[in-house]
Design goal:
Blueprint lengths: L6 H30 L7 H34 L6 H35 L4 H30 L4
Length: about 160
């Protein structure tokens, strides 16, 4: 039995670790959002928004970038064609990147501002929180579909 790994195996390992961090983090954020949405948990909204913004820039963005770079290296190293499972994953990655950059990030900052100005139980803060988490729940469903897509590799 050999302990040495091929370059492809190293790329795949890093790719999988990045996916676990990104998707697992997104799932955890959803659980925290459900807890923060409870009527008596209004005080947690402001700190949650701030923490999610912090985690987004330090975990979600780097892990998603590592994930896509490793994916392209895997395609090259494994001589993969751009089959459906790869195209679908890339499309979801691009959509997730755009949603994060254009909506989730800015809305999280605005949520922090709403909480600071109007308080955590304000209608503005609650409405913004619900919009953010609806968008991120939809994104999470697609990320989970990509995990299945990568595991099952339909069309390959």
């Amino acid at each position: 039995m050999s302990i040495a790994a091929t370059t492809y195996q190293w790329y795949l390992s890093v790719h999988i670790l990045a996916a676990v961090l990104w998707v697992g983090g997104a799932f955890t954020v959803q659980l925290l959002a459900i807890r923060a949405s409870r009527p008596r948990a209004a005080v947690e909204i402001g700190s949650l928004a701030s923490e999610i913004e912090w985690v987004g820039t330090r975990l979600f963005i780097p892990s998603s970038l590592v994930l896509v770079v490793m994916g392209f290296l895997l395609i090259h190293e494994g001589n993969w064609d751009y089959k459906f499972f790869i195209v679908f994953a890339l499309a979801v990655w691009i959509a997730s990147f755009l949603v994060g950059a254009a909506f989730l990030g800015p809305q999280s900052r605005k949520l922090s501002q709403d909480v600071e100005r109007h308080g955590p139980a304000s209608p503005q803060a609650r409405a913004r929180l619900q919009r953010i988490f609806l968008a991120s729940r939809i994104e999470l469903v697609f990320l989970l579909l990509v995990v299945l897509d990568m595991a099952l590799k339909p069309g390959s």
